[in-house]
Design goal:
Blueprint lengths: L4 E5 L24 H12 L6 E5 L9 H14 L6 E5 L7 H9 L4 E4 L4 H8 L3 H14 L4 E7 L7 H11 L3 E5 L16 H17 L7 H12 L14 E4 L4 E3 L13 E2 L6 H5 L2 H16 L6 H4 L4 H7 L11 H21 L22 H8 L1
Parallel strand pairs: 1-2, 1-7, 2-3, 3-4, 4-5, 5-6
Antiparallel strand pairs: 7-8, 8-9
The structure holds iron/sulfur cluster (2 copies).
Amino acid sequence: MKNPFHIMLIPTLGCPARCTYCWSSEPGSPVMSIETVHEIVEWLKKFRTDRVTFTFHGGEPLLAGADFYRQALPMITAGLQHLKPEFALQSNLWLMTPELADILAEYHVPIGSSIDGPEELNDLQRGKGYFKRTMQGYEIARTHGVHVRFICTFTAQSVKQREDIFNFFLKNGFVMKLHPALPSLRSNQPGHWALDPQEYGELLVYLLDKYLDHMGEIEIMNINDLFRCVFTRRGSVCTFVDCMGNTFAIGPDGGIYPCYRFVGMSGYILGNVADHPTLQDLQQSDAWKRMDRYRQYVDQTCGECSHIRYCRGGCPYNAIVAYGGEDKGVDPNCTAYKRIFGEISDRLNREMSEAPLMEMPPFGAASKKNKKHGIMSLVGMIASR
Ligand code: SF4
Ligand code: SF4
C-alpha cells in the first residue's frame, strides 16, 4: 500500500531539457539549500505521526547535485525515523552519474523517468537527443541497482501511434505509467499537444484490452490503479482521492504548496517550512480555503456520479488551470474517467454475474499465452505484485 502522507520536495524548477509540452520547468530557478532540508525535517517532526513518502520532483531534481542528496537523504532518514520515510525521485536521468546512482541505491530511491515511445517519436515531442541522454542515464542507474520506471506522456499527436508506443514498452520490458499531455501555459499554442479527454478515455480502454491480451508480459500502472479504484471502491492514487491535506510540496525556498504542480504559483502558498506551521496554521491560509472551496464544489457537482467515491472529481490542479481558478468545472478529464471507470464496472459486473465464483481465476494465476483474459484476471495479477 502507498503511504497516504506524501511530501514532494522540489529542489529546483530548473531543467536542462526543453520538452515542447512541458508546463512545470522554470529556467534560472534557485536550488534548495541543505538548510531548507533541515527546516523541513524540524517542521515534520511534530506535524504528523504516520508513515511518509518523500518524492524529489522538479523541474529536474538531479540539478541539486550529489552533495545535496548525500546530505539530505541521511538527514531526513535519521531526523524522521518515527515516520519511517520512504523515497522516490522523478527525473529525466540526463544528469545521472555513478556517484548519484550509488547514493540513491543506498537509500532505495526508485526513479520515475520519462520516455514517450520509440526514439524518433520521443524526440519529436521532447527534443532532439533526449532519448539517447535518458537511456545513458538509465544504464548508469540500472547497473548501480536503482530501479527505474518510465512515464509515457501521450499527446494529441502521439496517441495516433498508440500501438507502436505500447509495443515499444512491451518489447523493452518497461513498466508503463502514462500521463495525458496537459495544455501548457508557457506555449503560445497551449492546446496543441494536449490530449483531448475523449481520446484519453478511448486510449485507456485500448490499453486495458492490450493489457489483458498480454497478461503477465507487461505492467501498466494506471490500469492497475483504475481497476483497484473500482474493485475496492476507494481511490488509490492522488488523482482519485482528496489529495488536500495528505499531499504537500515544498518549493526551493521552503514554501509549502498543495502539490508540485502549484509550486511557484503565488496564490497557492500555504506557508513556509521555516515557520514550522501546524496543520491548523496551514488551514488558515487563503490557498487552503480556495482548495477547500473546490472540494465542496466537487461534492455538489459530482454528487450524482456513480464513481464519486473513488474519483473525487479528479485532479484539482487540472480543474483550476482549465477554469482560471474559478469553481466552474471539475477536472476536464472527467470524460475519460467516466469512460474507463464505466468500462471496468460493466466488465466486472458482467463477469461476476456470468461466472460462478468457483470459476474465477485464482489469485496469482499464471499467464497463459493465447488465452483471452477477462478483467477479473487483474485481481490475481495485482495481488501477485
Ligand atoms: S493536485 Fe492533482 S497531481 Fe497534485 S496531488 Fe492533487 S491530484 Fe495529484
Ligand atoms: S467521473 Fe467525473 S463526474 Fe464522476 S466523480 Fe469523476 S470527475 Fe466527477
